[in-house]
Structure prediction request, 200 residues.
Amino acid sequence: MNLTNGRSPSRAAIGGITIACNGAGGRVGFENNASRAGPLMRTVRREMYLATLIIFAISLAVLIGRGVWRMSQRSSAVKRRAETVFEGRQRLTSDEFSELFPHDARSIATRFRDILKGVLIVDALFIQPNDHLIADLGLGHVDGLEPYHLDGDVQSEYNVSLLPLFESIPDPSVADVVQYLASQNTTNKAIHRSRGSAVS
Prediction:
């Protein structure tokens, strides 16, 4: 745009923008100097983008670092507690562990201990029937999702949820869980047998 009003215009370039003025000093138009403003704006945007990425990366690293540190502290506390609980004990084989339970619950006890190995951070070979899952074995102390992982694994194995047990006993022992699973397993077998009889 160039309005001269009959006079020879003068031009001044400021920050990549050319301002055209008439002879009386009146501003009459602008010309965008793309060849100068384009690279400058692209450089500014690139620097702002890089600065944003750096700030985001630093913030994320700080958050992750804090989370890892807190989890490490909780893990150490659980292991120290387990060392106190397990003091004087010997590791038990599957047969030795199963013999601590009633005969009809031994296979469940052995399998439940195997499930605990994949959920807890303590050495499951030291576990005994009277150990409580939360207070003694640290269930849920390191990761709040551990109880849900345990419940999911038990449901996959026995098609039984532990949530009703935790509602009645906030911190059940290993023996409590095994007894509960044994009772539920017996009930399920009885239901299946009755259904099979009804069908036949």
Remarks:
- Residues 1-5, 27-31, 190-200 have pLDDT under 50 and may be disordered.
- The longest strand covers residues 27-32.
- Helices lie at 34-86, 94-98, 106-117, 146-158, 163-168, 174-199.
